[in-house]
């Protein structure tokens, strides 16, 4: 796990801070078609996307990273349904297609379905 953290932590750090503005604004004001994440935020999403296509261990790292991002992100709303919509909007807004769907389970702080299927 320590080795995974050496990979996951930098990826997470590249994504959490740059994407916080997007998550906070969009979830506070509602999901609008004009909302676009920053270039720095999308760069983190692109890095994760590239890694997610290598192999099963790589996809597990991506999953761990997304879980950590989800736990650390400051959403502008407590509504779990809106949080999930905002989270799911990120790949599309960054012009990325992950080989899985981002689905959150806010009470667990986990991304489910995809992640649990890998473990």
From TrEMBL:
Segments forming domain Bifunctional inhibitor/plant lipid transfer protein/seed storage helical: 18-100
Gene3D superfamilies for the chain: Plant lipid-transfer and hydrophobic proteins
Record's signal peptide: none
Domain of life of the native organism: Eukaryota
Pfam families given in the database record: Tryp_alpha_amyl
This protein's name: Bifunctional inhibitor/plant lipid transfer protein/seed storage helical domain-containing protein
């Amino acid at each position: 796990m320590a080795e995974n953290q050496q990979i996951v932590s930098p990826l997470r750090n590249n994504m959490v801070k740059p994407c916080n503005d997007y998550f906070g604004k969009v979830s506070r004001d509602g999901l609008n078609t004009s909302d676009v994440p920053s270039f720095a935020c999308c760069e983190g999403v692109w890095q994760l996307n590239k890694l997610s296509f290598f192999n099963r261990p790589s996809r597990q790292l991506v999953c761990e990273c997304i879980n950590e991002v989800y736990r650390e992100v400051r959403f502008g709303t407590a509504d779990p349904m809106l949080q999930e919509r905002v989270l799911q909007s990120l790949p599309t807004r960054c012009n990325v297609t992950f080989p899985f769907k981002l689905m959150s389970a806010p009470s667990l702080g986990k991304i489910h379905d995809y992640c649990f299927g890998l473990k």
